[in-house]
Amino acid sequence: MTSGKTNGKTAGQKGSGTSNGASNNGPLLQIKDLQTYFYSPGGVVKAVDGVSFDLRESETLGLVGESGCGKSVTALSIMRLIPDPPGRIVGGQVIFNGVDLLQVSDAEMRKVRGSEIAMIFQEPMTSLNPVLTIERQLTEPLELHMSMTRRQANARASELLEIVGIPDPESRLRGYPHQMSGGQRQRVMIAMALSCNPKILIADEATTALDVTIQAQILELMKDLTVRFGTSLIIITHNLGVVARYANRVNVMYAGKIREAGDAEDIYGTPKHPYTVGLLQSVPRLDVATTARLAPIRGEIPSLMNLPAGCAFRDRCDWAVERCAVDDPPLLDVGKTHTSACWEHARVELKKRVAAQ
Amino acid sequence: MDAATARPGAVRLAPTWGQRLRGLRRGAWRLTRNEPPVMIGIVIMSIMVFLAIFGPTLARTEYTRVDPVNRLLAPSAQHWFGTDTSGRDVFDRTIAGARLSLIVAGSVTLITTVIGTSLALVIGYVRVLDNILMRAVDGLLSFPTILLALALIALLGSSVQNVIIALSITGTAGKIRLIRGAVLLLRETAYVDAARAMGARMPRVLFIHIAPNTLGLVMVQATFTLASAILAEASLSFLGAGTPEFIPSWGNIVGTGQGYVQVAFWIAFFPGLFLTVTVLAVVLIGDALRDYLDPKLRGRIEREQA
């Protein structure tokens, strides 16, 4: 991580409209067989168990799954922010700019955090320090990573607030977080995250705590800014609707593993994993009669403490066959850029919704 | 950033120290203007500090002078607070005693707050230290404060310095336990995670993100320590283990007066009154300070008074 910003990413280099500008050179970030376990008195929780995916430059990747499937742990593992104890990254590689982040020293890792890879958290109400002014918090990454002076940082902080759409930034800077709404705070968090022109922005359920209209605004803002600055974006969410509109590619996670991965159109149009199908069918849609019943996924997530052999989803699956109880399927190619971890992927498809009485 | 967003004149200078000081003074004034209790607290404290500095010089008689003929006189125009068993003027001894009481209490507060808070921050944040050092703190806390202080003074000998040391050791242990608890909570907050995700190193997280959040607690605890140190010094003196008898302190004046409460209540009453009033003043100021240090409450105070 010696030459951080070699390609001198100048702000505003991309015109609007070139949104899906995934470049041809190799992936920006490569996760290979990542394993993060938590050691509890009751046993080992395999929160992330062999996750692999690539993130290309300027691309938006969705990481989808229900609570406890390992999305956030994956993100925290990339940042190396897993609380240890009880957690530990026991295997795999996180290759960023040709360097395995899991091998670098703590000091080098700190240089990556915030300046190369930035993260936005779920709780906008609590991710800002209540006793420090907005200015103090917004200038911190600038002073840490861009070695700006106080004065430069203050000027930049004011610009940043304006960019994320906060009116009257000068007076806002002097204010405290409790004087802002949740949406505004999340805008400040975005300003902080983007302040050092990171190459990757990880949004961990960044809009979950906000109401729907604000959610849309914040997502638009993130998309706009990442396109404008050529930042790659990882959207972590349990909400398929959020990802549908913004992600180029989607990884669906279940019980610590990626079960289906592919372009957004493939995942939404022709899902090939029963879990993805289940998720899609439980989302209410405007184009289906309101009398149609939503189809929930039956059962509940298995305990990660002692997963039985075979496919972790088989107990909840309508397509399960005998083989599922013995063999855990690997990710199988089901299309050009589409993989699914299901033996029966050929049979799996979205069902028509039936109207209820 | 793009040229479009860089407005000319957007540069705002950080406030100079002079401006900050003026801001602080304005804040303090706004805080006290409509708050009679705070005003009272400040006035009382100012008087006590004044007495601590000039008390011995202001005394009308040499406060160590004995006058056996005029002993145990009731308060009068001559002796406002009466005289004690050796005929020494209680008023003179009381105002002279302010110095010692405040020096001991002030030192103990400063030492326990600085050392206790810094240790608590580190102990609360670094888990390994937490396991080891908290056992030592538990050990210290299992003794009654006064007993431990008595033992230390028996060991070190009776002097003002040793009273300060003894009270600081016991006070620091309690402070560590309290503030460590707050640090344990703050360590898990989202903004501490966010700061680490920004690449902040441990000292920065501790002193910029966690420490300011403990400030309210630290300040309230400091005023409490100040009040209880005055009382503890008095208790030690009262038990005869505190400051040597020839240096008057509120504690040892009360101590000598306690045997004569029925014949000459004034010996114990007046220094006791000074002690109580000072503690009250400290608590009043501490309360207001706590409110002012919390940005949420401060906003409310300023709005109410605007």
Structure report:
The complex is a heterodimer of chains A (357) and B (306). In chain A, helix 4 (150-163) packs across helix 6 (182-194) and helix 6 (182-194) runs parallel beside helix 7. Chain A has two domains: 29-247, P-loop containing nucleotide triphosphate hydrolases (Rossmann fold, 3-Layer(aba) Sandwich); 257-340, no CATH class. Chain A is built from ten helices and twelve strands. In chain A, strand 11 and strand 12 form a beta hairpin. With 357 residues, chain A is α/β, with parallel strands linked by helices. Chain A has an eight-stranded mixed beta sheet with strand order 6-7-8-3-9-10-12-11, sandwiched between helices. A four-stranded antiparallel beta sheet of chain A has the order 2-1-4-5. The longest helix of chain A is centred in the middle third of the chain and has 18 residues, at 212-229. Chain B is mainly α. Chain B has a single domain, classed as MetI-like (MetI-like fold), CATH 1.10.3720.10. The interface between A and B is large, with 44 and 33 residues.
Strand order, largest beta sheet of chain A: 6-7-8-3-9-10-12-11
- The number of helical runs of chain A is 10
Class of chain B, according to the CATH hierarchy? Mainly Alpha
The oligomeric status of these chains comes to heterodimer
Indicate the CATH architecture of chain B. Answer: Orthogonal Bundle
CATH domain fold name of the largest domain in chain A: Rossmann fold
User: What is the percentage of strand-forming residues of chain B?
Assistant: under 5%
Share of residues in helices of chain B: over 70%
Count of helices of chain B? 11
Query: Mean pLDDT of chain B, rounded to whole units?
Result: 81
